[in-house]
Write a structure and sequence with these properties.
Layout (H helix, E strand, L loop, with lengths): L1 H7 L10 H22 L5 H23 L21 H11 L4 E5 L9 E5 H20 L3 H35 L8 H11 L5
Antiparallel strand pairs: 1-2
Helix pairs in contact: 2-3, 2-5, 3-6, 4-5, 5-6, 6-7
Length: 205
Amino acid sequence: MADTTEQARDISGPAEVDEEFAQQIADQVESFLLALRAIARGEATGGEAISLLLLVVSQVLLAGGRLGVQEDFQPQEEYEPDPGPDPDLDEMRHRLAVLLGGVDAYTEVFDPYVDPPELVSSLVSDDLTSIAASLAHGLRHFKAGRVAEALWWWQFSYVASWGGEASATLRALQSVIAHDRLDSEFESEQEDVEAAEQMLGGTPV
């Protein structure tokens, strides 16, 4: 990760930082991280957990969209300052995988503009943990007072990684809810429908 970010850094001198905007993004990031940890601990189960995950991912994507429409933020140092050790998120990843069970694995179109489109398989639990790691990395810079660095990191990683992961995860979570609420006419989708019904506590189709 460090090599990628170092290659992408464009130093153009100190730039004015919008402290209020940065604080708003930091608040949204921290809210996402707190909610995700709470859900992983089992404070919500079944359909409630899916609904809450859908909500928190939607909210953090709003923060990503706000970052994405801004002009490129510029870091103030040539190399990224050491933000300290990364948090150990393996336990959270495991708890999310257990919580999601049969609806954890999903398939997504990697890039809708590639012809032919490439399908990739992923796990919601892996993607949520990856998003959390990227956001927590920037939050450590913010809390250390490196506001420009935090904004640069959040914006860069949104475009490079967690924005796509969050969008794909949102679509997967929406699909779970849709399968629960809409009858499927296709036998090939029956296993997915049953998994969604079991997760959300509905009546099997």
